[in-house]
């Protein structure tokens, strides 16, 4: 609540002329009581009120910032508590985000395999493929002839010699079908339709693991949401408690300004800014912690992914994510302060 | 300016701080409020400041029943009243200048105008040269004058004072009362609660005498 009006004039430099000038208006204006005071409060133009409002906001945002900087250790600890509360849900959210990417890839690879009867020859197989393509629910198809199937099989198993000894190719030709919809029910239905086609031996849908992964992701999202709400409440409590103490320590000041006509909004303002600064500081620290954790985990994660023959890097918070995190934390800080001050102001009555 | 109509005030349902108060104070009057401690002087002032509402009757200030004011209007009402407290109610972590500028700051007066008015008020109470001092560096009398400067910086039409000379020696008390008379002379309605009977008798203004929450004498009324 530091005033923005700092007298710039050096001590002793008040010229007598200005003193005399300053003295006169009090007498003149005070002889017109109330009417003048009323005019001042009622006729103040909207724009000048707006300017005064903006001035107070500016003054209070700096004032609360200086108060923060004046006690760096304690305030840093508060911000760290906020940051820790934010890091966990944020990290989980990031993980889920990468899982969603993985999920999209899985959708891409969700296919049905139509195995044709071994008796079917190439020309018939092509006709069956056309019939399959004609199905509405089918996106596209890829024919794997018996020979190709054999070749792939050999390659993947490395059993050249053993299979070379076979006289006949025991593998059927197959058609890999990418469905329009990857919904389990739709895929089951499509499988049934395709199975009914002449020359089709069997249709394979391996959905169980896709479904399991889906369920896991849904579970994860719920857990993240619950954690987010819980830890958001935690941030509210941390900020609320800190602000409560700040209000208590400035109780006298609040009583005095309320005695001389300060509105609740005026009293609340510096504390709201403090809360917002706490939130912003906590958010920035949380970003730092996330970056640090990412750095710390990236090597083992890369090694793990490499051992599966995949390349996977930990997801990083992009500009949008960082902005969302910072706005959420700032908003939470502000809200915590608002709740604390509002709750507390009712208990403060000027004596 | 002020009208009490059958005003009573009870605390906690039993203790009757004020009862059957009926009086008017005209615009531009200067009135002393006297009586023993506990006679209800402070309660009366608190009613006018709308720190409390009367249990019975009406308190009218400038034609408005102030009990009817909505909580959100009360700050704006208080801005029209200058109050001098016995314990000054100064903020000790800010300079004299910033203590006096507080009411203007609350009203959002622009800094230059604020500085001008603060210096005018400090000049009036003779403390212009101490504007950068902290309240703790001042004597009791000087602190009280800072409190007065803060009460009048806003050019209120009504000035209330609760035992403004409570802890001051006679000479300082006379000076302080002189200040109030100055403000009264330029049109401000002044109401001062004081038990310094010798001093207020000398000043020849209207005196409201309270005993056990009742008005027992109204002397020198115009």
Structure description:
The complex is a heterodimer of chains A (351) and B (222). With 351 residues, chain A is of the alpha+beta class. Chain A has 2 domains: 55-104 and 213-345, no CATH class; 111-206, Alpha-Beta Plaits. Chain A has helices at 16-30, 35-42, 46-70, 72-109, 122-134, 146-157, 160-164, 184-195, 208-249, 251-259, 264-307, 319-345; strands spanning 112-116, 138-144, 174-179, 200-205. A 4-stranded antiparallel beta sheet of chain A has the order 2-3-1-4. In chain A, helix 9 runs antiparallel to helix 11 (264-307). Chain A is elongated and about 100 Å long. Mean pLDDT of chain A is 78; it is low at 1-39. Chain B is built from 7 helices and 10 strands. In chain B, a hairpin with a 2-residue loop joins strand 9 (206-211) and strand 10 (214-219). In chain B, helix 3 (96-107) runs parallel beside helix 5 (140-152). The radius of gyration of chain B is 17 Å and the shape is globular.
Q: Secondary structure elements and their pairing?
A:
The complex is a heterodimer of chains A (about 350) and B (about 220).
Chain A: H1 16-30, H2 35-42, H3 46-70, H4 72-109, E1 112-116, H5 122-134, E2 138-144, H6 146-157, H7 160-164, E3 174-179, H8 184-195, E4 200-205, H9 208-249, H10 251-259, H11 264-307, H12 319-345
Chain B: E1 2-11, E2 15-25, E3 30-34, H1 41-48, E4 56-61, E5 64-65, H2 74-78, E6 81-84, H3 96-107, H4 111-124, H5 140-152, E7 158-162, H6 170-185, E8 189-193, H7 197-203, E9 206-211, E10 214-219
Parallel strand pairs in B: 3-8, 3-9, 6-7, 7-8
Antiparallel strand pairs in B: 1-2, 1-4, 4-5, 9-10
Helix pairs in contact in B: 3-4, 3-5, 4-5, 5-6
Which labels suit this protein?
heterodimer; A: 351 residues; alpha+beta; Alpha-Beta Plaits; 2 domains; 4-stranded antiparallel beta sheet; 4 strands; B: 222 residues; alpha/beta; 6-stranded mixed beta sheet; cell division (chain A)
């Amino acid at each position: 609540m530091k005033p923005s009006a700092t007298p710039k004039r050096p001590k002793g430099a008040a010229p007598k002329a200005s003193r005399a000038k300053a003295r006169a208006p009090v007498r003149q204006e005070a002889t017109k009581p109330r009417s003048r005071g009323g005019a001042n409060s009622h006729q103040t133009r909207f724009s000048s009120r707006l300017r005064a409002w903006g001035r107070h906001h500016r003054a209070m945002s700096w004032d609360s910032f200086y108060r923060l900087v004046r006690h760096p250790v304690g305030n840093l600890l508060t911000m760290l508590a906020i940051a820790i509360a934010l890091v966990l849900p944020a990290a989980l959210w990031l993980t889920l985000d990468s899982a969603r990417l993985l999920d999209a890839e899985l959708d891409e690879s969700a296919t049905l395999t139509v195995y044709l009867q071994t008796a079917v020859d190439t020309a018939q197989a092509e006709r069956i493929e056309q019939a399959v393509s004609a199905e509405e629910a089918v996106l596209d198809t890829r024919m794997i002839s018996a020979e190709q199937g054999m070749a792939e099989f050999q390659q993947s198993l490395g059993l050249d010699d053993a299979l070379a000894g076979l006289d006949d190719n025991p593998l059927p030709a197959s058609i890999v079908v990418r469905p329009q919809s990857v919904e389990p029910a739709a895929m089951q239905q499509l499988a049934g339709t395709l199975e009914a086609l002449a020359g089709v031996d069997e249709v394979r849908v391996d959905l169980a693991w896709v479904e399991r992964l889906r369920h896991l992701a849904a579970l994860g999202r719920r857990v993240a949401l619950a954690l987010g709400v819980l830890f958001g409440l935690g941030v509210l409590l941390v900020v609320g408690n800190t602000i409560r103490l700040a209000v208590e320590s400035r109780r006298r000041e609040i009583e005095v300004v309320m005695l001389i006509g300060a509105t609740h909004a005026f009293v609340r303002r510096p504390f709201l800014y403090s809360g917002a600064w706490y939130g912003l500081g906590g958010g920035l620290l949380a970003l730092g912690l996330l970056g640090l954790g990412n750095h710390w985990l990236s090597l083992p994660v890369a090694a793990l992914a490499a051992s599966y023959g995949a390349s996977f890097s930990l997801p990083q918070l992009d500009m949008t994510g960082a902005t969302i995190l910072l706005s959420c934390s700032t908003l939470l800080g502000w809200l915590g302060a608002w709740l604390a001050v509002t709750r507390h102001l009712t208990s403060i009555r000027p004596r | 300016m002020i009208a009490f109509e059958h005003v009573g005030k009870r605390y906690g349902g039993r203790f009757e701080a004020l009862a059957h108060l009926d009086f008017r104070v005209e615009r531009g009057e200067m009135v002393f409020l006297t009586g023993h401690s506990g006679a209800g002087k402070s309660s009366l002032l608190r009613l006018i400041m709308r720190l409390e509402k009367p249990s019975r009757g009406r308190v009218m200030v400038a034609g408005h029943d102030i009990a009817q004011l909505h909580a959100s209007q009360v700050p704006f009402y208080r801005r029209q009243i200058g109050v001098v407290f016995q314990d000054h109610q100064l903020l000790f972590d800010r300079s004299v200048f910033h203590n006096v500028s507080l009411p203007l700051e609350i009203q959002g007066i622009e800094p230059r105008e604020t500085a001008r008015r603060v210096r005018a008020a400090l000049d009036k109470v003779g403390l212009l040269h101490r504007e950068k001092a902290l309240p703790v560096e001042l004597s009791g009398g000087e602190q009280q004058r800072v409190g007065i400067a803060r009460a009048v910086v806003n050019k209120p039409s009504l000035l209330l004072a609760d035992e403004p000379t409570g802890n001051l020696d006679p000479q300082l008390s006379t000076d302080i009362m002189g200040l109030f008379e100055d403000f009264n002379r330029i049109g401000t309605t002044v109401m001062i609660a004081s038990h310094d009977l010798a001093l207020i008798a000398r000043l020849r203004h209207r005196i409201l005498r309270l005993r056990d929450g009742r008005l027992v004498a109204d002397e020198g009324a115009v």
